[in-house]
Amino acid sequence: MASGENILDEGSEALENLESQLMSAQDAAAKHQRIAEDSAAELRFLRAQAADEKAARQAAEDQVRRAQDELQKMKAELLAAKDDLAGARREHEAALDARFKEISGLMKALQKAQDRDAHVADLVSHANRFQLLFTRLLNALLKQSAPRFLPKNVRVQRKCALMEKHSLFEPAWYLEQNPDVAQAGVDPAEHFVNHGLREGRAVNRTMEDLRRSMAALEDQKHA
Length: 223
Known about the structure:
Layout: H1 2-115, H2 120-145, H3 152-165, H4 171-177, H5 179-184, H6 188-199, H7 205-222
């Protein structure tokens, strides 16, 4: 009888062990299942993140390409604008040269007219018109050669350079005729373009001789 009870006890103990092992196995399986699910979720997250990063990188690359294309377009437009500006500058300088040559021709014509024995009234009239034309044309050309968008010192330099190029201004004579300018110690050409032209001072000996000749002719006319 005792042997039978021992067998039952051993069987019960073995059954409990089996049940314990089964529960442990179930727990382990559940744990592995959770790990597998977590790993799968993490893998899905990483894949989604990688896809987002790839899309962002592709968008950035597209943006860079568009920016590069726009930059190339702007460079081409800039080169075209530079070419247009250079052409316009050449045309502008050619027009200035032509007008200064016209002034030079007028001055030579005036000199010949002064040498001719002409009627006093006609000579005075022509001289008056020429002086007015010369003054207006010189003023217009100086303004045209130095647009107002340029700095003031650049405008003055360009005006002085144009007068020097066409031999319209006589610095030494100007200082001799205008001692106040000489005493001030300023550049004669700059003084003329800044003040002298507006004040009616002569630009060179020829124009001063013209003014004096006109005054003398007027005196003769009223004598």
